[in-house]
Amino acid sequence: MKLQMRITGGLAFALAALLGTAAQAEDITVKLGVLNDMSSLYSDIGGQGSVVAAKMAIADFNPAAHGMKVELVNADHLNKPDVGTNIARQWFDVDHVDAIIDVPTSSVALAVNEVVREKNRVFLISGAASSDLTGPKCSPNSVHWTYDTWMLANSTGKSIVKTGGTTWFFLTSDYAFGHALERDTKAVVLANGGQVLGGVLHPLNTQDFSSFLLQAQASKAKIIGLANAGGDTINAIKQGAEFGITVGGQNFAGLLVFINDVQALGLKTAQGLILTETFYWDMNDGTRAWTKRWQAERPGKFPAMTVAGVYAETLHYLKAVAALKSATDGKAVVAKMKDMPTDDPLFGKGYIRADGRKIHPAYLFEVKKPEESKYDGDVYKLRATAAAEEAFRPLKDGGCPMVTN
Amino acid sequence: MMERVVDPLVLQKRREASVSFAVGLAALAGFFAVAPFIMYPVFLMQVLCFALFACAFNLLIGYVGLVSFGHALYFGWASYFSAYTAKAWGWPPEAAILTGTAAAAVLGVIAGGLAIRRQGIYFAMITLALAQMMYLVALRVKMTGGEDGIQAVPRGWLFGRFDLANDMTMYAVVAVVVLAAFLLIYRIINSPFGEVLKAIRENELRTVSLGYKTERYKLVAFVLSATLAGLAGSLKALVFQLASLTDVHWTMSGDVVLMTLLGGLGTVFGPFVGAFCVVAMQNYLAQFGQWVLVIQGVIFVVCVLLFRRGIIGELARYLRVKL
Amino acid sequence: MFEIFGIPSQALFGQLLLGLINGSFYALLSLGLAVIFGMLNIINFTHGAQYMMGAFCAYLLLQYLGINYWAALIIVPIVVGIFGIVIERLFLQHLHKLDHLYGLILTFGLALIIEGVFRNYYGSSGQPYQVPEALRGGRNLGFMFLPNYRAWVIAFSLVVCLATWYAIERTRLGSYLRAATENPTLVRAFGINVPRMVTLTYGFGVALAALAGVMAAPIYNVSPQMGSDLIIVVFAVVVIGGMGSIMGAIVTGFVLGIVEGLTKVFFPEASNTVIFGIMIIVLLLRPAGLFGRPA
């Protein structure tokens, strides 16, 4: 049986090599796969919007001019690590996908990260938040764009503590992302002289927060830190209003809030919420123009920072592939991406660090009051900007094995 | 020992059944021997694991008449134990698989002991409730990794010699184990023990009046079913190098019911066909996300109303053989 | 603020009250299941999906027809009840002669279809549904802040449960129902249209589930999966209470809700699983359930 396998395998290999060399004589074909949540609680911050962003990146890159052909596929990982890794494996083994893009839900991202590493392809992360992706789990095949839990904690957490929110109670989503966010924010709160009075874990996609909110109320903490995202954050804030959280003198800190969440809540409920994003559609002419193009396919919606991240990293990836003239060696492409400085209308100028972390400025926003909003989508006012170097965790603190010093 | 007199017609039917089984087994073995060179091996391994899971479930529902709506409990927790021992304790794959299977057996004894007390619908509800409880436990307990699951499980070296990281080697191991287990089930069904089980399904009261302690038989069958489901789960954890909440969720219990129903309740080969169809459908329709749920529901409804015998059942009826 | 066993009273009473609210939903839903099981001998797996349909119906009525909560309380159970009747006529009536198992699987399949369809159109995020104007705000009871709406839920559920119990146990129609369960042939011989009663009973059980859904809409997130996780807990409630009596289902529902609430205070990690744990204990001691008649 073994000899048979070896002969068959050898023949297959020879054939593939033959075909491979034949292929290189023509256009370079690159296949991209957008893997995210299309139907559940994170579908608004990525979903179809990310697919549109990737398509725009491909179009703006203009493959024909570089002698390349770029194909795009997409799939729904249902926020489940096993579905995500299944799809990733099949994409790599059977469909010859070269790069996987987006992947919100840190537990899925961490699992896919391992598959990408094993198969030596590329992982362009945008949706996932866990800072472990550029920390202990960092990989030479991955680039983490847009944001991470450390940056959020540092920006939102620090500013809230400094403005009087000194006692905290955490409402945490019970998985990799929630734990990472809580851990990073706790560290910031304590480092800035605050106190953590307690916390409670809730399952992903919780419908009823009443008992958790009751515990938060009982703790008498000034700030209830929401270490969750998407639908969970929205539910907690909505039900918090029902239980008179703010009436009782406590405030919510939305540690990860996207523009879509703010719109789902409505300005009346969300006003005054402080949050951090690395992209806002109304920031400057470049972002406005891009958003207008994006909205052609997503009417009535506004792009979250993760969608912008998908566009920017896909574009940068394609530029790196064009420079290398090949997409087959994932490590090499990522090394090239770190080598080339980044420049796009959404995030401006920046670069990718050795640990895979993309560096760009972080913006602290406050949600406008209903009277202050002049047009649809006018929801943020800028409170502070953190320069790229300060916004993200210092390279040496991450615990990434690739960083040797 | 008294000579057993058997009706010649019964003997003839048994011979026919043996022939049809041999043919079916040859076809099955042949398919799985050739398939990995044509189809994606990981997909086939998924089919094999779920086929074993469905065979285990079929043992209970097809031959004893007990509907367990919480079979994911054994499949999923075996998967967790197997993954945990392989990853956190670095055990070799054979030890990990055995651990997972043993864990499922223990859970089967406990759950079976509780559920067997009730009949029919209550039995089903109790199995479902127990499975859901263990799902909630899996959500919280540190060992399982909660929403993240146990990731990057090393496949290891089987008996220190075979590198399971190679998909083809892993496939060979999985295929051999599953087919062996399948043969074991067939042996059990066609043994005196199996005959009593079938008698219980047909008419439990009469079987009791014949002097059989039916509760005991049911429990043994239940534990066997749970153990084999556990074996499937342990294998699956190594194939995908991941054990997650999906494996203990009630949708997984529903999936195995679907596979068995579609293949044919109480048929020998039905579970394989059913597993193949359902896994293929789920993979093929992955990009449509939620429609898979709807389609599965439709298949359930159609099967119950119009297609109760399932694929193999209908085929068997058409060919007038026992499959 | 005083303390009981080291737990501040605010937390204790607050969780107790929340437990009572959860208990109201458990009671309503297990009541519906008990009614259906009593008549048709079918476990209505679709119950959770029908509860969800009730909530969505309320949302859709408000969104597209501007029909408010109060009208929805009446319209939605009727609409979803009719849907239930259609299911019974189309599917369930063919299963009477078959093994119980098929009824289970069929209703399970229907639940998957309904949940899947709603998920495809509405996604998982959930739809907004406001608490009706008249019930907004709340009362500070000293030991906790009680939203008015949640108080209403407890009161209204009690009323509905008791009314149902009365209708089935104390009225003439109820007695026909109970007789038809025991001996349909004999009852039919008396000239009573048993199949129609069966159909209407199923519709009524479904309507109860939908009513629970409408009541849940303002406080629980209106999403396609709101029914599926809840229904399994309700099954456990039903096993504990025993299918024998209507009152059993109601009492068990409320009591278990309270027990769950207490567990959240004293032993929060176990709060999800306590009902299942109780089910195991009851099964060991009284296999027929607390109020059930041994088979």
What would your notes on this structure say?
The complex is a heterotrimer of chains A (405), B (323) and C (295). Chain A contains 14 helices and 15 strands. Chain A is α/β, with parallel strands linked by helices. In chain A, strands 2-1-3-4-5 form a 5-stranded parallel beta sheet, with helices on both faces. In chain A, a hairpin with a 5-residue loop joins strand 12 (348-352) and strand 13. Chain A is globular. The model of chain A is unreliable at 7-25 (pLDDT under 50). Chain B is mostly helical and 323 residues long. Chain B has helices spanning 8-34, 41-64, 72-87, 93-115, 120-140, 167-189, 192-202, 204-209, 214-240, 250-263, 270-284, 291-306, 310-319, and strands spanning 157-158, 162-163. Chain C is 71% helix and 3% strand. Chain C has one domain (10-226). Chain C contains 11 helices and 4 strands. Chain C is mainly alpha-helical. Chain C has helices at residues 9-40, 47-65, 69-90, 100-122, 148-170, 172-182, 184-189, 194-216, 226-241, 246-266, 274-285; strands at residues 3-4, 7-8, 138-140, 145-147. The N and C termini of chain C lie far apart (50 Å). The model of chain C has no long low-confidence stretch (mean pLDDT 84). At the A-C interface, helix 7 and helix 8 of A face helix 1 of C.
